Structures are given as C-alpha cells and as structure tokens.
Amino acid sequence: MRILTVLIVGILACAAVVAQADQSGRTLPVPVTRVEPAYTDEARAAKISGTVTLTVTIDDKGVPVELHVLKSLDPGLDQKALDAVSKWRFRPALQDGEPVAFQATIEVTFKLL
C-alpha cells in the first residue's frame, strides 16, 4: 500500500491506493500525478472529517476512467474526492510487460487540523 499525504491550508488530506497484486504477477498501477482534494465550505463549517472510499478503474494508459463512491462521507466531500482522483494519472498496471486496466480502491481522508 502506498500512502500519499498533502497539507492543504490547514486541512490534512490523505489518499491511499489500496490494491492487491494478484497471483498472476500483474504489477500495480503507480500514481505519478496527483491533484489534492479540497474541503467544501459546508463540510468545514460542520467540522466533518473522515474517509471517502472510491473504486476506480485505471485504464491501460494510466487514466482513471470509472470512479464510484464505495463508502460515502458527505455528498460534497464525496464529489471533491471524485473530482480530484479523476485528475490523477498513473503508470499503468502491467501484465506480462503489457499495460492493462486495473481496478483499485482509493481512500481519500479528510481531516481538519
């Protein structure tokens, strides 16, 4: 598991790519470009913190193409997580040296400092 942490104006946003390598030797996608999610004004005012869990299909070019909320936190923060991760880029997963699509679980954690 690779953990990515960023500090955003008094807010700690953490994202972790959680994916298991399968037994066939497929390599995992690796994030190479990340966009940090932001808090919504409403979530900040309500002091909401926690984790949004997304399922993401990363295509053979390393682009997230299908993103779905698996575990919701707040509708606004869910959308911020989707928006941010949709802009990420990955080194694609490989199968026998060839790029392949891969389904991953990505956790985006919002925490007020």
What structural class do you assign from the helix and strand content? alpha+beta
Biggest sheet overview: 5 strands, antiparallel
Overall number of strands = 9
CATH topology: TolA/TonB C-terminal domain
Q: Could you give the order of strands across the largest sheet?
A: 1-2-9-4-5
What amount of the residues lies in strands? over 45%
Number of helical runs?
2
**What Rg do the Cα atoms give?**
14 Å
CATH homologous group name: TonB
For the record, the CATH architecture stands as 2-Layer Sandwich
CATH class: Alpha Beta
Estimate percent helicity. 10-25%
* Secondary-structure element order, N to C: EEEHEEHEEEE
How would you characterize this protein structure?
The protein is an alpha+beta fold and 113 residues long. The chain has a single domain (2-112), classed as TolA/TonB C-terminal domain (2-Layer Sandwich), CATH 3.30.2420. Helices cover 15% and strands 50% of the residues. The model is unreliable at 1-20 (pLDDT under 50).
